[in-house]
């Protein structure tokens, strides 16, 4: 096998992007597309001269694909992936892996049972900036971590939310900013700082006419006693993207894609123990960081996925690690709606009960002006 034959399931938005750059990946070949809207599937199929399917199962049974990219709305990621694994078909799932941690559990179990490769489309993991940050932490250059912070303030207009009946609804999307815009940064945040053991969150709809949250914030507690903070919104302009990981030996900051590292000498704990001067502080020196800012593209994850199938190269973004962002998403939603501190891993039964209640009383979207347009950042 010299090329992996790909089918893309869901080509009305992000999936069309995956089709458009498939030709740039030497190990991959687009061989089929699928969308529940026949006109959309036919148009994309005609553009790339591949067969069109209108049901995922039909594409999976076609014999035309070795792997699929699932780019449907969130609720459909787990069932389509599980059906693919039953047929020994490799899977890349768009983010997030699913709405409910329990369904993601089933997705991961099916992948393991099948022996197939499983990846989640967290393309930021391929960025040299985040790869370097991960290496710095893995090498112990920060020492024991005592504080973490994630600020992700983005903006989405009411027109964006009105572009589809499924958007920003419990039944169609399963949440708001946390499950739609925040997963990439929640993945990076947990990849660098680890998962907390407890969180206390608030979620609210501050500005938009939607039934789900457009703002969420939480305080975190880690197993070693460290604390953290998360803030995510679609109500802020200009946008802000900022991750801090603070340790006894150093501090790491990623702001607007730029990495800054401080080395602390002596360590904070050592200085506090040994210093006798009233106003003295440990020296914090900026460490020169010379590196080429590369990577971070969807195609990077797809090519790595192909190489993992062909040559057993380690996955940059393993599917099972996609669970971490869903733990944070569901944990914050559960805590925000119950007004209680919740443990991580999240109580599966408690979250499923809450989601069923939220889905049972949806508000009607009065103004829907449907648009299926790929985010121009990815075009």
List keywords for this structure.
Dihydrodipicolinate Reductase, domain 2; 379 residues; alpha/beta; 24% strand; 15 strands; Rossmann fold
Q: Can you walk me through this structure?
A:
The chain is α/β, with parallel strands linked by helices. It has two domains: 4-124 and 296-316, Rossmann fold (3-Layer(aba) Sandwich), CATH 3.40.50.720; 125-289 and 325-360, Dihydrodipicolinate Reductase, domain 2 (2-Layer Sandwich), CATH 3.30.360.10. The chain is 34% helix and 24% strand. The protein has helices at 14-21, 38-48, 56-60, 77-86, 101-114, 128-138, 158-161, 177-180, 183-193, 268-274, 298-311, 323-338, 348-360, and strands spanning 4-9, 28-34, 52-53, 67-70, 90-93, 118-120, 145-155, 198-204, 215-221, 227-233, 235-247, 250-255, 258-265, 283-287, 342-343. The strands form two sheets. The chain has a nine-stranded mixed sheet. A six-stranded parallel sheet has the order 3-2-1-4-5-6, with helices on both faces. A hairpin with a 5-residue loop joins β9 and β10 (227-233). α6 packs parallel to α9. The longest helix has 16 residues, at 323-338. The chain is globular and about 75 Å long. 47% of the residues are buried. The model has no long low-confidence stretch (mean pLDDT 95).
